[in-house]
TrEMBL record:
GO molecular function: 3,8-divinyl protochlorophyllide a 8-vinyl-reductase (NADPH) activity
Pathway: Porphyrin-containing compound metabolism; chlorophyll biosynthesis
Region (Disordered): 47-83
Source organism: Lotharella globosa
PANTHER family: DIVINYL CHLOROPHYLLIDE A 8-VINYL-REDUCTASE, CHLOROPLASTIC
Subcellular location: Plastid, Chloroplast
GO biological process, any: chlorophyll biosynthetic process
Reactions accelerated catalytically: protochlorophyllide a + NADP(+) = 3,8-divinyl protochlorophyllide a + NADPH + H(+)
Listed name of the protein: Divinyl chlorophyllide a 8-vinyl-reductase, chloroplastic
Name of one Pfam family that matches: NAD_binding_10
EC number: 1.3.1.75
InterPro entries: DVR-like, NAD(P)-bd_dom, NAD(P)-bd_dom_sf
Ranges of compositional bias, category Low complexity: 58-73
Length: 414
């Protein structure tokens, strides 16, 4: 008698895994892996996280025409990214993670400002690990010294770390998997801090992420754990927590231009953000070295204007592209089902733990707003909308970058 072949649970999970990866890809197109930030007392901590309170300050980004009703607020504008005059004292700055998406902007900004910049890179660096050391050197200003080293190996890192005044970390896990998150977002970043201290560094500037305010994912917990170590290190620190990047909003541009739909989750009102340009963020991180008001602070930062929901993003994008609106709204419950399946399978098959985590990452970016949260975990509303990026896309053949045409105003509540 013929009997159907029995399939192992792992093989039965393959179609679900494929579906989840497709969903995750769609989410990643819409949302930057910001990596892709948190706020003082608004941090929601897991049971395993340290409990030391954050500094009682917060930072919001508004357009230059906005004002605060609070008499305790103070405004200032960070240096524009075109600033090229060398600093009065030419500090030695060592950058780790300088070949990543934001890291490259930071290295170039620091070099343009006249700092003595060293970038420590892996043998295979850059996005996807496709760049050799020589490739990295060609892509950076000639004044930048590129040194090969392994940030995950303290001994290796200490042997190549130069004498330095400041360490800037743009390290971030490439995958967001459980082990990789702790290896990069915590261990490698801590190695960089410790090696820098050994070589004389007194200051550490960290690129974190605004999503650590609500740490439901492993990479967020790893980032928070290092933030705590940094604040207890005795070094001067600046913890920069950006919202989504403009590039993250450009993932569906080509599809929309060609008449395709804009894909969003839920009703399109989930996952609002205040996108910031990559160059503005790099400029702000460079400001942290010399601006005393940015030192020993947790610094949430986003672009000017009102927060944008995916629905609003689609409307602006359709208008910029000159095509009729065409949207697809995917029920968020689809991802909940995939997460449940992977969680159950991961209890039996440990090699599926990362698959479950990837599904959770996709779900998080599909549903959670990348905004500053109040003490109750609710997004803080903003009143002004900035259409500049979308107009720039329209007049610049829908590229994914924007130039700095508005000064960023930071408002701090004391």
């Amino acid at each position: 008698m013929w009997r159907p072949a029995r399939r192992s649970p792992a093989r039965m999970a393959a179609p679900i895994l494929a579906l989840s990866l497709v969903v995750l890809l769609g989410v990643t197109m819409m949302r930057g892996y910001s990596s892709s930030s948190s706020l003082g007392s608004g941090v929601v901590r897991s049971a395993t996280m340290p409990t030391r309170p954050m500094p009682m300050t917060s930072s919001l980004v508004r357009s230059s025409s906005s004002s605060s009703s609070s008499p305790r607020s103070k405004c200032w504008a960070p240096q524009a990214h075109t600033f090229t005059a060398p600093p009065q004292d030419k500090k030695r700055v060592t950058v780790v993670g300088g070949t990543g998406y934001i890291g490259k902007f930071v290295v170039k900004e620091l070099a343009n400002r006249g700092y003595d910049v060293t970038a420590i890179v892996r043998g295979s660096s850059g996005i996807g690990g496709k760049s050799s050391v020589s490739d990295v050197q060609k892509d950076l200003p000639e004044s930048v010294k590129v040194i090969q080293g392994d940030v995950t190996d303290m001994e290796s890192l200490s042997s190549v770390m130069p004498e330095t005044d400041v360490v800037v970390s743009c390290l971030a896990s490439r995958t967001g998997g459980i082990s990789d998150s702790w290896l990069i977002d915590y261990e490698a970043t801590k190695n960089s801090m410790d090696a820098g201290k050994e070589k004389g560094a007194k200051q550490f500037v960290l690129l974190s992420a605004i999503c650590v305010q609500k740490p439901l994912l492993e990479f967020q917990r790893a980032k928070l754990r290092f933030e705590e170590d940094l604040m207890n290190s005795g070094m001067e620190y600046s913890i920069v927590r950006p919202t989504a990047f403009f590039k993250s909003l450009a993932g569906q541009i080509e599809n929309v231009k060609n008449g395709g739909p804009y894909v969003m989750f839920g009703d399109g009102e989930l996952a609002a953000c205040k996108p910031i340009s990559e160059r503005d963020l790099a400029s702000y991180m460079a400001d942290c070295i010399t601006n005393k008001e940015l030192i020993n602070q947790v610094l949430p930062i986003g672009g000017p204007g009102e927060a944008l929901t995916p629905l609003q993003q689609s409307e602006l994008l359709f208008k910029a592209a000159g095509v009729e609106p065409n949207t697809i709204k995917v029920p968020i419950q689809i991802m909940d089902g995939a997460i449940w399946v992977f969680d159950q399978l991961a209890k039996v098959f440990k090699n599926l733990e990362d698959a479950a985590e990837f599904a959770k990452i996709g779900r998080y970016y599909a549903a959670e707003s990348m905004l500053l949260l109040d003490q109750n975990g609710h997004p803080i509303p903003h009143k002004q909308l900035n259409h500049h990026h979308y107009h720039h896309l329209q007049h610049d053949k829908l590229t994914s970058f924007t130039t700095t045409t508005q000064r960023i105003i930071m408002i701090r509540f004391r």
